[in-house]
Specification:
This protein is α/β, with parallel strands linked by helices and 307 residues long. The protein has two domains: 145 residues, Rossmann fold (3-Layer(aba) Sandwich); 137 residues, Nitrogenase molybdenum iron protein domain (Rossmann fold, 3-Layer(aba) Sandwich), CATH 3.40.50.1980. It has 13 helices and 14 strands. The strands form four sheets. A six-stranded mixed beta sheet has the order 11-8-7-12-13-14, sandwiched between helices. A four-stranded parallel beta sheet has the order 2-1-5-6, sandwiched between helices. A two-stranded antiparallel ribbon has the order 3-4. It is globular and about 60 Å long.
């Protein structure tokens, strides 16, 4: 089977099911596992934003969207040369990957029969269903079932340790920094399973821009920077700008030194298997007295601000 992945999360699923050899092209953002970076790249970004601030990136993306333009380019020539049997894509977010409509148009010129699978996870466990779906479409159902069972076991372990908590901290997961965004889709569920409550996130829906005053009024006890597409170091660097914003020193999270940064790109924004790692990260941040000694130390960083 010849597979093309147009999603970093789909690439991770393909490798997890032992289909790395069948994967013939990936996106420019597919960086995990290590073998993915050696595959032919079939997409590129219209915007170059490696040195841009979060505000500059936001303005560039919204400008293209308002003009009805795509943020990404799909190499149709390479797609035609590969003649894939299976294309893994999405309709969830035009900011996250190549537009589904562009994929459909490109597929029209291909010879033979291709199957285009759109992965649409809105909720946390939808990701597990997507793994099973990819397994079904690639004759790897038994492998997918075993893998999902292993992930479910890790999720259930967290649930069993937090389900009876009577005190749950108020958490704000900042999915974009400037302008601030409330987290969407699966994040509020992850916070709940990890033992907190996310009062600004929108369950099962896309993340949305909010006013900073909304955050000040919400008064989170724990604040987690997880900007979409940014790794840990970039998240830490971007987070520094907010300390001058009105009301920042008065936030309970700041006063209690409960401000953190995480690798949003790897563990929170991509709806792939590593969301479970993200859940374990949140569990350690929200309830260290429970999980610091029973889970391996995960990749996150407490940010110390001088107010």
């Amino acid at each position: 089977m010849k597979i093309v992945s147009l999603l970093p999360s789909a690439t991770e699923i393909v490798y997890a099911l032992g289909l790395g050899e069948e994967l013939l092209a990936v996106t420019h953002e597919c960086d995990y596992p290590s073998g993915a970076s050696e595959k032919p790249v079939i997409t590129s970004s219209i915007l170059e934003h490696s040195e841009s601030s979060s505000l500059q990136i936001h303005k560039g993306i919204t400008g293209l969207i308002h003009e009805g333009k795509s943020i990404y380019h799909l190499n149709e020539k390479l797609l035609a040369e590969i003649k894939p049997d299976l294309i893994l894509t999405q309709e969830l977010c035009d900011v996250c990957a190549v537009s589904y409509n562009i994929v459909l148009e490109a597929a029209k010129i291909l010879e033979g029969d291709q199957e285009i699978i759109s992965l649409e996870p809105h909720f946390f466990r939808d990701v597990l269903s997507n793994i099973l779906l990819v397994g079904e479409k690639t004759d790897k159902s038994s492998e997918a079932k075993r893998f999902v069972d292993s992930l479910e076991k890790r999720i259930t372990f967290i649930e069993n340790n937090t389900c009876k908590l009577t005190v749950r901290p108020k958490v704000y997961c900042m999915e974009w920094i400037d302008p601030p965004f409330a987290a969407g889709h699966w994040i509020s569920e992850m916070v709940a399973i990890a033992g907190g409550q996310e009062g600004l996130a929108i369950k099962g829906q896309p993340s949305v821009q909010i006013n900073w005053q909304d955050v000040v009024d919400y008064a989170p006890e724990i604040l987690v920077f997880m900007p979409c597409g940014f790794g840990l170091d970039r998240a830490v660097a971007e987070a520094k700008q907010v300390q001058g914003w009105p009301g920042w020193p008065d936030l309970p999270a700041v006063k209690k030194n409960q401000v953190y940064a995480v690798d949003g790109s790897s563990f929170f924004n991509r709806p792939g298997p590593r969301l479970v790692d993200g859940l374990e990260i949140l569990a350690q941040i929200l309830n260290p007295e429970i999980f610091s000694s029973i889970l391996p130390r995960k990749n996150y960083q407490r940010i110390h601000f001088v107010c």
